[in-house]
Structure formats: C-alpha cells, structure tokens
Amino acid sequence: MVSRLKNPAIALALLFLFVLALSNYADKPSQELSEFGEINFVYDGDTFRVKTDAGELKTVRIIGADSPEIQSQYRNQQCFGEEASKFAHEQFFAKRVELIKDPFTSDKDKYDRYLRYLKLETGEYISEILIKNGYAKVYQGADFENKGIFTALEQQAKQSKLGLWAACSS
Fold first, then answer.
1. Alpha helices in 46-169 (DSSP H)
2. Which of 12, 13, 15, 132 is deepest in the core (most CB within 10 A)?
3. Residue 70 DSSP label
4. pTM of the entire predicted model
5. Do the Cβ atoms of 40 and 50 come closer than 8 Å?
6. Is residue 10 part of a domain?
7. Which domain holds residue 72?
8. From first to last of its 170 residues, what are the pLDDT tens digits of the chain?
9. How far apart are the C-alpha atoms of 19 and 25, rounded to whole Å?
10. End-to-end distance of the chain based on CA atoms, in angstroms?
C-alpha cells in the first residue's frame, strides 16, 4: 500500500537529504583512489618504491605494463630487462607522481605490492611511456581500465620496432 506525504515541505526536505547523501558518497571513491608521492627507488622497469606525502613507503607494481625481468634471486634475466630497468631509473627516479588505483584491479598483488598507475606531473602514465617506447609490453594477466589505450600504443611500438621489439626475437 502506497501512502502519500501530505506535507510537501517534508517531501522536499527528504529529497534534499537524499541528494546530499548521494553527493557525499559520490565524492568519496575518487578521493580514495589516488594519493601523491615521490619515487625514491626503482626496482626494475615496472616496480617502484614511492614515499607518499603522508610519509608512507609503498612498493608499487605499475598497472598495465610488463617490462622484461632483470636478473634476481627469483627470476632469470630476460631480453631487454637491463635496458628497461635503466630507462625507468633515468626517467622516473625522484619524480613526483600520483598513485591511482584502477577500479578493475585489486589493491595488491600476490607479492604484497600495491597495484597503481603512476601518473607524472606532465599528465603521462609511466606505463604509457614504457609501452610506447618499447620498454614494456601490455600486461596480460588481468583486466584494467586503460588496456585498450595501452594495447594501441604497444602495436605502434611493435610496428616501429622500438626497444624490445627490435632487440628481442619473441
């Protein structure tokens, strides 16, 4: 059974409170999806340590890019791994970045690294720079928001035989 509100002022007040509650809710996710900091260590081409403005150290595996591995106790060296790591260090060490969470990606990976896009003050994503210059391939292990854009950049790098696309056979 539907009852009607007899006082339009009450109905208007309830509508106002509902809209206010929705607008407050809509603001929260975007605030929680990013933070700022500075890269203070480059592990390899796709993993960085960032000191956030809040003073927290976060190991970040960038979303969307998969650079070749460097030699470590866990992995063997892959073709173009050293070059990708060197490029990442030269281009991104000590840079200010925005850490952005992807709505389709989990918060951390199996190695307890934060999964984030790292966006430079220029507006470019580190993943984008690595992929378009042939220092990384598009990560295929999960879906993420910018996969289509990154795939197009990878195709351009591949056709232009940039970086790993010229140096490596596979």
1. 81-92, 126-132, 147-159, 164-167
2. 132
3. P
4. 0.80
5. yes
6. no
7. 31-165
8. 444 545 655 545 444 444 444 433 333 334 457 999 999 999 999 999 999 999 999 999 999 999 999 988 888 899 999 999 999 999 999 999 999 999 999 999 999 999 999 999 999 999 999 999 999 999 999 999 999 999 999 999 999 999 999 999 86
9. 10
10. 68
